[in-house]
Amino acid sequence: MRAQFVMSEIGVGLRRNLTMTFAVIISVGLSLALFGGSMLMSEQVSKMKGFWYDKANVSIYLCNKQDALEASEAATKKADGSAGGSTGVTTCAKGAVTEEQKKQIQAELKQMSLVKSVAYESADEAFKHYQERFGNTALASSITPDQMQESFRVKLKDPEKYKVVTSAFVGRDGIHTVDDQRQAIDDLFRILNYLNIAALAIMLIMLIVALLLIVNTVRVSAFSRRRETGIMRLVGASSFYIQVPFIMEAAVAGLIGALFACAMLMSGQYFVIDHGVGLRDKIQLIDFMGWGSVLAKLPYVLFIGLLMPSMAAFIALRKYLKV
Hints:
Layout: H1 3-16, H2 18-55, E1 58-62, H3 65-80, H4 99-111, E2 115-121, H5 123-134, E3 151-156, H6 162-169, E4 175-180, H7 181-224, H8 226-234, H9 239-274, H10 279-282, H11 291-320
Antiparallel strand pairs: 1-3, 1-4, 2-3
Helix pairs in contact: 1-9, 2-7, 2-9, 2-11, 7-9, 7-11, 9-11
């Protein structure tokens, strides 16, 4: 097989169907950009989960005098029938947490095998941390240290088992609430996963459109050159020899589309993450992926950009060129 003949046939086919070839390049490029973006987003979410789950604590907030007073008033109103919308008596109704209760809670936490560490935060420390975070707000000026709750910050060896700690301590005397930070984090990751699923769905739609365009482009190209293919059949050319220029046309269009997708992915990393918008500097709480992760996905994009159009063209031509 002469390479010069094949290359000339590829050029002729691309020029004859320039508009459809351009549509194939754009659709393949967009679908593969979404494919690469979905892979990067999945890796980013997994990286964020590992980072934030490791920092997620189970916080056990203890009753203070203010909580005990409010709980006692709520219990009195409920007993008098004057609190129709009350949520009921809380454990703080029995008074603020005692030193004995704090020692017992701390001892039980340290005995649990799944607990990695336990840190005690006093009311004064909680007030200091609150002022550091919300000191500029109007509400912060009305908060006093005695209104803050003491707490135990529990770090688990396996954050997945936070419910064990919650069920063991919720509702006990001296404990106001048991708050697991992972629940809020899970909501964030659930939204990110939904967005990733939506991107994958759009990618599949774009891939289907690209495949249909490739099939139509190949068939139009084969129809416009039916005289040449007929002559090649008469002189004994094999089916594979006849099909190669059409398959290569689709492969070239797919490769250009894949290169376009790679350019979009690298542009997104450069202009959105690192520079331009600069999300890496503006949102420092998120450890964004670097260039290594982006470059590692480009070979997959290029491979699919070559393979998908070639296979689509080969399948379409098997029936169309059969005589």
